[in-house]
Amino acid sequence: MEITKHRFKGVYQIKEEDRPGVEIATVNLSPGTRVYGERIIRHSGREYRIWDPYRSKLSAAIHKGLSEMPISPGSRVLYLGAASGTTASHVSDIIGEDGKIFCVEMSSRTMRELITLCERRKNMIPILGDARKPWEYSSLVGYSDVIYQDVAQPDQAKIALENAKRLLKPGGFAIIAIKSRSIDVTKDPREIFKEEVRKIERGGFEVIEVKRLDPFEKDHAIILGRFEG
Description:
The strands form 2 sheets. The chain has a 7-stranded mixed β-sheet, sandwiched between helices. A 5-stranded antiparallel β-sheet has the order 1-2-3-5-4. The radius of gyration is 17 Å and the shape is globular. The chain contains 7 helices and 12 strands. Helix 5 packs parallel to helix 7 (189-202). The protein has helices at residues 57-63, 86-95, 108-120, 138-141, 156-167, 180-183, 189-202, and strands at 2-5, 12-15, 23-27, 40-43, 46-50, 76-80, 100-105, 124-128, 144-149, 168-179, 205-212, 220-227. It is of the alpha/beta class. Strand 6, helix 2 (86-95) and strand 7 form a beta-alpha-beta unit. The chain has 2 domains: 2-51, Phosphorylase Kinase, domain 1; 58-227, Rossmann fold (3-Layer(aba) Sandwich).
């Protein structure tokens, strides 16, 4: 087995002799626990959680060669659409004890699972709220270094912009997962992604990259942007 540091801080590459390819992983901030049934590898006194690209759009983007990763140790992250915490838990691993991740989720049923996870990870703050209404949780969050959004709604770009204007520091980043079929099932996904990029640019972002997520997620893309205000 070979474990090496990825070029993104807090992310590791793992090559096992009996498995094809290279997997990515994060160091478990809550040793001895799994979040979504992920494989755990114990090596040299550390627990590495395999970060499944079929279960996490951010992992898929890294596997597809994402050029820049603004989430790093110590970051303050606003996560919109945290669900039960699959991707959020890996972000929690990356930012470590000196970082904070504010997890906004509007489903009360899913929130119960998320709260259980947050009880084991003190850098995760669960917020039951609607990502369309950032003014309702802005006092809890303050300014963030990064917004990560995974909200499959027709107004995905508008949601990201409303939160950025209130809660993202100037020069901060947004990582926005776009699901084209949630916007318009009749259009070519490539055209939808172009339209969403235009909306985000008009809202004050410099778009750094658009990364398609096939084959891990069909008709999805990650938009990475820097907020210029």
